[in-house]
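Follow-up to my earlier ticket, as requested here are the two runs.
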Amino acid sequence: MTDEATVCAAAFFRIRGKDVVTPKEFAMTVSLDLKWMPVKEAYALADLLIERKAMTRSGGYLRSAEGLNVLAVPIAYRPSETFRQEIVARLKGSTKRTKAPATATGDDLFPALVDLAVKAGVPKGKFISECNGLKKKLGIDVCAAALIVLRDHGADAEELTEKVYQQLLVH
């Protein structure tokens, strides 16, 4: 029988449609697109999947383990509550934050962009939804999509534009 970590990794990579992703892309997809869990838990999930050999980390990228592409995965897979509680327990027991190596601006840009949208009067849920839709439609980074959505709502995002640009150059 296949353990849940392996099924989870197989489901993620099958849904994502590729075998290699950045840790940030993993966390954002798991959290914002698939809505499996919050971002912090998604980073802990990545660490757990690496530990259980369902994924590997090399050169700043996460790769699916060999043979996951032939694994049978339930159509509407979501991590079980037991598996999620294991991730939450790991997160609570950890004193360090489990996330990707960050640039100087780090992965904190999207929350800062969300805060900017809220200050501009855009409801948080609506903003995130519009960002995800634009990200999928144009195939761009969620922070780049956020800048476009902010512009469309008339918000001034000049203070974060350069940081987003620098982050995109790194990725």
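Run two:
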Amino acid sequence: MFATEPITGADLPDGHLVLTYDDGPGPQTRAVAEYLSEMGIEATFFVVGNSIEKMPDIPALVRALGHRLGNHTWTHFYNGLPAQLESGGDIVDELMRTAALFSGEQAVAFRPPYGAWNPQIAAALNADDVLSPAHVGPFNWEIHCTDWKSWLEGEDPIDVASCFRAHAKAKRKGIVLLHDYTAEAHNRPEPEFRIMAEGNRSAELTRALVPMLLADGFRFVPLAAVS
């Protein structure tokens, strides 16, 4: 069922973090999932349907590596679900089509594009007797460093990791938002979205960030710890 207010990691114990990745699958997804699996860390990958179409084998691989899949809609509508609903868009179909591509997931985690959410969206999605019981969400986040923008600007993944580290140390706990792709690369004509997607270095970022956070004494827990 979809909650009226976003779910956060505010109630996690001090020093506990949840890793989540949005907008995939993309070319970096497999490497990220493999590394985290080697480290014994379960992440949640919030996937976009029209990205799955281009990499159909990745969701099953991610799950086989011990991670959780989440629903991040079919198109990642560029103005978010509230604007899509107001313009007459079928937001139920946005979630249904994506969830169908990784059937078998229990309690499908959901994160709306951009975190955009309101009670009207919750009511519209909860009105569907098939969609609502299968999902839990929406999940928000506490820790984020606009990594997607870093790839447009050519930043070093170690510098980006250091930003995440600083945010984590300031917050002390919560859900971490990273991006293993840029969904808008499929939907928007502006060249910067393609550059961000093709320049994504989330695997290097993850390999730099995890040891930093472990050295700081953080513990990684699954998304289920907050749902």
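The only thing I checked on run two: The chain has one domain: 2-225. Let me know what else you need.
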